[in-house]
Amino acid sequence: MHEVDLEIAYGVITVSTSRFEKYGFVDNPPMEDESGKFLVDEFKAKIYRLIPDDVLEIRRTVLDVLRNVDAIITTGGTGLNPRDVTIEAIKPLIEKEIEGFGEIFRYLSYREIGERAMLTRAFAGISRGKAIFCLPGSLNAVKLGSNLIKSQIKHILTHARGLM
After folding, report:
1. pLDDT for 26
2. Residue-wise pLDDT tens for the chain (164 aa)?
3. CB-based contact 134:74 (threshold 8 Å)
4. By CB count within 10 A, which of 18, 52, 111, 151 is most buried?
5. In what order do the strands lie in the sheet with 123-127?
6. Where are the alpha helices (DSSP H) in the chain?
7. Cα-based distances in Å from 134 to 5, 19, 62, 123
8. pLDDT score of 1
9. CA–CA separation, 130 vs 164, rounded Å?
10. Which residues, in sequence order, are CB contacts of 136 under 8 Å at separation 6+?
11. How far apart are CA 110 and CA 66, in angstroms?
């Protein structure tokens, strides 16, 4: 069987308490949010949100954005700092985890930055037939993740929606 030709609407969420405290709610990524800006431009995102590192705020925002898009890409809040709670906030919303996304992301990161790649918690999963990708906040990590997402998103959504 072949993938169904899909028009995909994207949402981008930057998780950063420091940027949120500086800018508050904005419709477009502020200049210093290079990763958010890159994602919005790269995926022609329909929605952009800047939110603080707060479990409830992350969940609320993801569920709100998910109503209007086919895929969400988050950036930030994936590190080992106690304030980094993006994955903890999103995991309970996931019906099926895409383990291979994080594995391949770490493998490719390892080729670029060596053993420090083990610190990344890049993550992806399916919720309500839609894809959610959690990327680290660095621009290099976002570019790497973007390539993975673009290469497989139609295939992922086709499977997630039972269209194959």
Report:
1. 85
2. 455 577 899 999 999 999 999 998 888 899 899 999 999 999 999 999 999 999 999 999 999 999 999 999 999 999 999 999 999 999 999 999 999 999 999 999 999 999 999 999 999 999 999 999 999 999 999 999 999 999 999 999 999 998 76
3. yes
4. 52
5. 47-51, 10-15, 71-75, 130-135, 123-127, 96-97
6. 17-23, 34-43, 55-66, 86-90, 99-113, 139-160
7. 24, 18, 11, 5
8. 43
9. 15
10. 75, 76, 78, 79, 120, 121, 122, 142, 145
11. 31
Report residue 58 as tokens: 């992350």
One-letter amino acid identity for 23? Y
Q: Which candidate, 33, 7, 6, places its Cα nearest to that of 18?
A: 33
What pairs with residue 97 in β-bridges? 125
pTM over 0.90: yes
pLDDT at position 164 is: 63
Euclidean distance between CA atoms 12 and 88, whole angstroms: 18
Please give the helix or strand (H or E) that residue 12 lies within, else none.
strand 10-15
Q: Which residue has tokens 């290469």?
A: 151
